[in-house]
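BUG-249 | component: ligand-complex export | severity: low

The export step for S-adenosylmethionine jobs runs without errors, but we want the raw record kept on the ticket for reference. Input record follows.
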Amino acid sequence: MSGSILIAGIGPGDEALITPQVSAALAEATDVFGYIPYVARLVPRAGLTLHASDNRAELDRAGQALDCAASGGRVVVVSSGDPGVFAMAAAVFEALEAGPAHWRDLDIQVLPGITAMLAASARAGAPLGHDFCAINLSDNLKPWALIERRLRLAAQADFAMAFYNPRSQARPDGFARALAVLREECGLDRPVLFARAVTTPDEALRVVTLRDARPDMADMRTMVIVGSSQTRLIARDAGPILYTPRSAS
Ligand SMILES: C[S@@+](CC[C@H](N)C(=O)[O-])C[C@H]1O[C@@H](n2cnc3c(N)ncnc32)[C@H](O)[C@@H]1O
């Protein structure tokens, strides 16, 4: 079995944020598998077959990519951001664990990328400068009760919190419930960053308090970061800086 499978992060949007390691892997690939908009970011070339699929098809995509590698392909599976953060690396390993034994002989590597949480944080300042956690607000793969429990405990532990997948057309109400929980646990004055389409031409950043945060400020291209009790704003003419100091009492 001579094929290989690399699971690569293509960053939050800006090409300059794709690592040289990932660019080299893409230049060598015979087959790239990924969600339609992520594959659309790649430049087609002779010798490369692009396999784009829907976002609900992760396990199928992972199985097809493993099969392709087992047939000798130099396969790259792409995710936006980092492939280990709510993305394809875990899906490929789920398929590998359940799949035929010969898949385990493949050369498999995960190539990291810049995850949306870090890109958004960098644009706003350093809201994740002290202890923080990341929570996926989608209830597609876990029950809402678990999301709410994690939200409450993270807020009670005074973490800054980074929220992926805050709101979609299929899940219009969950984020409103999340905001209600956060207001109960953190009060109304806590800063909230809405960072949309970071590092793309559509980028939009907004900092409000939990009092003023509204569900329609987030969509599926938005990263939401809620500060800890220590997170603050430095006012500047050029726009505020949101940061969390390195020490806490
Ligand atoms: C399925 S998760 C994938 C995360 C990805 N693996 C990563 O590491 O960034 C998709 C979510 O990531 C966030 N996201 C991805 N790219 C983003 C960007 N450029 N700006 C803001 N949020 C982004 C959004 O919350 C979106 O709903």
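Assignee comment: Attached the raw record above. The first strand starts at residue 4 and ends at 9.
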